[in-house]
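Support request, please re-run this one:
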Amino acid sequence: MVMFLTVHASVGAIIGEYTGDNLSAFIFGLMSHFFLDMIPHGDRKIEGIFLNNISHQKKWLAVLFVMDFITAFSLVTLMWISGVIVNPVAAYSGALGAVTPDVLSGFTVISKNKLWPEFNKFHGRIHDVLTNHKSIYIGVTLQVATLFTAWLFPFLFKF
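Re-run finished. Output below.
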């Protein structure tokens, strides 16, 4: 039940860039996660493809997480190196805040619901606020559009 971390981290980084304050960046990045999770993103289909075998679920979850995490923070670094981000500490703080709910949910799955089960239920319900679980194609298209918008935002609105 996760939107790609790449989208969350990019939006969080942009939020961090505009807040300029590390703590505010983290908090607003964290809040952005829940708003982004309301956007239909086809994740139920992705889970079905990769995580249908319970014995392999944790392994695939870990592999997908690591790949997505590396991609997410590589893109934030690219934004910094290219000059889109000029306050990297606040940007990384926003990105870290934005991915935190998925990290906590991942630990909940790994711990067999011993860690943060109520948070995980809340996080799961957020996904259902505006969606009737669109297809993977619509979901990925919406994620790409959100990512593109996040990357476009600093070019359109330089403060």
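The CA atoms of residues 29 and 98 lie 4 Å apart. The mean pLDDT is 84.
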